[in-house]
Give the backbone structure.
Amino acid sequence: MSTKRTNLEFFTKASNVSAMYYRQFLYHFRVLRNNFLWLLFRLRLYKPQNVDRRIVISLTSYPARFEYLAKTLKTLMIQTISPNAVRVYIEEKDFPQIGPRLLRFRKLGVTFCPTVSGWRAATKLIPEILRDEAKEDLILYLDDEIIYPRNLVASLVHTLDAWPDSDVVFNWGQIVPLWDANAGCIPKYSTWKTTNLVSPEKNLVVPLGVAGVLLKRASVPVEVSNFVQFQEMSQSNDDLWYWFHFIQNNLKLVRSLENFESPIYWRGSQEQALWKTNIIQGENDNIIKRMMEKSSRFQTLILKSKAV
């Protein structure tokens, strides 16, 4: 018995070490690949394709992340399909800290937009929704600390072309688990499975902005921009907030039909991160509880999650 246990421990450790080295290899490979493509882009030897769709990429950042924002913006500049605009929403008080390294991106079509202080995660999408003069039909919201693959925009746009009646297209989703009738709740958010293998027909999947989410501007429910309610219910998790309104308004959610590389964070970018509060400290569970108390329709949809 001890021999079997020893063998199991050995192979478990070997497997963990192999996985660690694979992740390291994957990280360095993507960094090198993006640096090479960025060099070709700056030498004008690589040019993204323009499509007959008006797309804006919307994201937010703050001083502790500006170093990683610059790297992420490079990955957005070398997409196979070029967005029409990239807007970065930053709180007014942080504007003086935007340095020359970031400001150089303005020549490449990036706009830095001031927002009022205190919006936190809401600045990723809500200010973009509230822009009266915006001309883009499609909004792609994402995070500021990810090594995005160059087919990010293309994978979402091609899926929307294939499913023209869809409202939201995502690359990566969090599956809402079965309702636990005995416990009278759904399992803790920390146990939810993250997957990119979700059937497009199932709406009880939370689209994750970390992997990019594309939505039609005309389909966005007006309630999404209710900042006061956002602060009361979900101020540390914008993904849950958007999904809360998507499913109540019967928006059609579709997973990307193309292969999408799993998101990889820039090294050192997660020292300050909301997921630590939301997942490790259980704030996501509190958010979902508040949402169920606020909306009987949302509660009904959650209760019916057992049918998924």
